[in-house]
Inverse folding.
């Protein structure tokens, strides 16, 4: 149970990292332009929801993850961008004794293509990518699923003006398929709303989540005992504050909290993200 | 995942686009429109004031929407009518196609009926045409209602050439000597910070300089207070007798708005009488536009001279203009290789030899700067069209186009009464630029749609590879 719980938390950290790319998701980069992002994320969880959605608050397990990430996007053409992201995590699982795992996580890389736009203010794009585990097989249950995967995601991003203030929104829905024995498929989603306080300061709020389902649904207890739970779901919210130093440099600080879930920890934490445009 | 789930997912994602797509945004006239008469949007639907009996709303749309076709490709329109008449309306729809010089190439009539308070539609197929631009009239004659909707479509615009191109043999020598003479006039730049117009985010400077004929011309430089070490430049040139003011809403560029002689705060640089574009029209050396073109070069001299002081990025100097401003931007790019990019909206005077015929043919009532030239020829004894062209061939943007090698974005509106699309394309097709692109507004007159400016912003950023 605890191992499954831990693994689920790890997956959440990975998903969380991926979702941080919202700062540019959906907006085409523009040919020849490059965006590089770095992030530092702390994630912690002690309480958890079990497979039936029942909340357990007296768990003897605690989980903390420190993740440094790098991600980027390069404009191949007016519509097509190449995107990548890779995290490096240090995970601390406190059960009877502390257990540590360090290493690279899942590399994600793919292409985003702008399908159409409305007046160059609203963009609908599709992302198709691959997930490649960057860690040895024996770390498969600590740094990720250890499976190759593919992802397709639809994104709609646009700008709006509200009582003279400018803002943006971002909607994403994706489908991931992992490959291997009992490999799960996952449905991911994100809805974000941002508001510019002035030319340099922005706030945003988002709701995101994952529904992960494995073909092996014979008995959840067996999966849990095997230490490879792949059936889980959660809904998370985060609040961000961003400051634009220049056209090239922006920094975002965010805090997040898991609202609800199944077979998932009540995770919370924060992240610091830097965006550099070239 | 099931198919239905995908459908719901796609619908949710597209909802904002659909919602925004419903909203009608106003069309924004270009900032440097040449005439005080504001160009209005050519109505996509003909809506006369409703009579006591009822009203008709007519919608005409080309397919594709841009109204540009390949040579010999079938021209397709949809014609839809919504009637609020309380009686059935019966009659005919006549589709008449003329060249932009008024020669009829196609006519067909259809029986057309609309029931009481109902709608009716018709698909109109017009045979393929040769390269060029055409006017199509949809003439509706019903029991109680008559109306005509006019549209323009283009065929193979990228292959269009001017009917006559006549670059004078001494064109280059004429302008080289002009540039040499300008160099001998000390610019005596004077840059004064305008404290009243400056804000905490923008520094505004009044720029004064001596130009052609030692006339003092002026402009406004706006610098974002918070700016990169090297800032790209937007050099904006004015429309016909348009006053250029400081640009306060651009955070990414140093923006220099030049008032050429006779415009804005350079009004006193030339004391002309009568129409601006007729001043000294009998002499290519004395013609007002000679000084105007030289003013544009002098403005570039200012940018160059102050590049170190203001940290201008001289590899990223965009020259921007609409109407006459577009004409000036293109002429300047042909004369001065310090121009690194041009965006030209509805370039006035392009291919004047054709424009002077097309304008009065399609829009006889429109008193544009080109109409003024034509009118001058008609009412001035001894001043012939030949004489006009012997001057204007030195000033027509089409003759500068082959020398333009920087990237160019050209905006064209198909119903433009001042700058016929054929003439804009004839000039565009002469540009030597490796990167050039057009933006077409099919249903607008002498204006561009508001999304153009968004596109222009991305286009400049893409071309200059700006973050």
């Amino acid at each position: 149970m605890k191992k499954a719980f831990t693994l689920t938390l790890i997956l959440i950290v990975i998903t969380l990292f991926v979702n941080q790319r919202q700062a540019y998701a959906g907006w085409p980069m523009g040919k020849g332009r490059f965006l590089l992002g770095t992030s530092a994320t702390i994630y912690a969880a002690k309480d958890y929801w079990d497979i039936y959605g029942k909340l357990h608050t007296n768990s003897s397990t605690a989980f903390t993850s420190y993740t440094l990430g790098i991600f980027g996007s390069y404009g191949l053409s007016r519509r097509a961008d190449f995107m990548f992201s890779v995290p490096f995590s240090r995970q601390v699982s406190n059960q009877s004794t502390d257990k540590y795992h360090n290493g690279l996580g899942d590399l994600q890389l793919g292409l985003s293509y702008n399908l159409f736009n409305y007046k160059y203010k609203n963009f609908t794009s599709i992302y198709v990518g691959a997930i490649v585990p960057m860690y040895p097989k024996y770390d498969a249950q600590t740094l990720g699923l250890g499976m190759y995967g593919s992802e397709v995601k639809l994104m709609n991003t646009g700008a709006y003006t509200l009582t003279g203030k400018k803002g943006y929104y971002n909607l994403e829905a994706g489908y991931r398929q992992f490959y291997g024995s009992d490999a799960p498929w996952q449905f991911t989603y994100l809805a974000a709303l941002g508001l510019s306080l002035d030319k340099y300061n922005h706030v945003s709020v988002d709701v995101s989540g994952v529904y992960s389902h494995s073909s092996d649904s014979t008995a959840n207890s067996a999966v849990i005992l095997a230490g490879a739970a792949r059936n889980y779901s959660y809904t998370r919210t985060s609040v961000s504050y961003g400051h634009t130093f220049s056209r090239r440099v922006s920094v975002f600080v965010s805090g997040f909290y898991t609202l609800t879930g199944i077979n998932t920890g009540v995770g919370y934490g924060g992240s610091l993200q830097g965006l550099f445009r070239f | 995942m099931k198919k239905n789930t995908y459908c719901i997912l796609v619908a949710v994602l597209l909802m904002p686009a659909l919602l925004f797509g419903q909203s009608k945004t106003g069309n924004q006239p270009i900032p440097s429109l040449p005439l005080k008469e504001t160009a209005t949007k050519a109505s996509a639907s003909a809506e006369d004031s409703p009579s006591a009996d009822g009203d008709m709303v007519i919608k005409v749309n080309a397919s594709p929407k841009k109204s540009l076709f390949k040579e010999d490709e079938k021209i397709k329109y949809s014609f839809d009518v919504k009637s609020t008449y309380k009686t059935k309306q019966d009659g005919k729809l006549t589709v008449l196609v003329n060249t932009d010089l008024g020669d009829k190439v196609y006519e067909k009539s259809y029986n057309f009926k609309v029931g009481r308070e109902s709608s009716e539609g018709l698909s109109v197929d017009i045979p393929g045409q040769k390269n060029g631009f055409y006017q199509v009239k949809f003439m509706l004659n019903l029991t109680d209602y008559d109306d005509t909707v006019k549209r323009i479509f283009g065929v193979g615009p990228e292959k269009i050439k001017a009917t006559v191109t006549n670059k004078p043999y001494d064109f280059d020598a004429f302008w080289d000597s002009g540039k040499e003479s300008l160099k001998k006039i000390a610019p005596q730049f004077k840059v004064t910070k305008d404290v009243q117009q400056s804000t905490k985010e923008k520094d505004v400077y009044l720029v004064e300089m001596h130009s052609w004929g030692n006339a003092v011309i002026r402009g406004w430089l706006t610098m974002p207070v918070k700016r990169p070490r090297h800032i790209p430049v937007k050099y904006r040139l004015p429309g016909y007798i348009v006053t250029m003011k400081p640009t306060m809403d651009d955070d990414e560029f140093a923006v220099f708005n030049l008032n050429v002689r006779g415009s804005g705060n350079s009004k006193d640089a030339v004391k002309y009488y009568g129409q601006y574009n007729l001043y000294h029209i009998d002499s290519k050396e004395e013609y007002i536009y000679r000084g105007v073109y030289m003013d544009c070069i002098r403005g570039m001299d200012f940018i160059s001279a102050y590049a170190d002081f203001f940290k201008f990025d001289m590899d990223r100097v965009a020259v921007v203009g609409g109407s006459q401003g577009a004409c000036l931007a293109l002429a300047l790019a042909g004369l001065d290789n310090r121009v690194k990019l041009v965006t030209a909206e509805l370039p006035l005077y392009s291919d004047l030899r054709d424009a002077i015929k097309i304008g009065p043919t399609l829009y006889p009532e429109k008193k544009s700067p080109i109409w003024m030239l034509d009118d001058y020829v008609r009412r001035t004894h001894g001043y012939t069209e030949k004489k006009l062209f012997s001057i204007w061939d030195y000033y027509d943007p089409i003759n500068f186009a082959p020398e333009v090698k920087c990237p160019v974005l050209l905006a064209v509106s198909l119903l433009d009464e001042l700058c016929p699309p054929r003439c804009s394309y004839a000039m565009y097709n002469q540009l030597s630029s490796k990167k050039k692109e057009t933006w077409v507004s099919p249903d607008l007159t002498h204006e561009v749609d508001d999304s153009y400016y968004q596109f222009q912003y991305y286009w400049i950023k893409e071309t200059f590879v700006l973050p």
Q: What stands out?
A: Confidence is low (pLDDT under 50) at residues 9-24, 218-228 of chain A. Residues 209 and 235 of chain A are 4 Å apart (CA to CA).
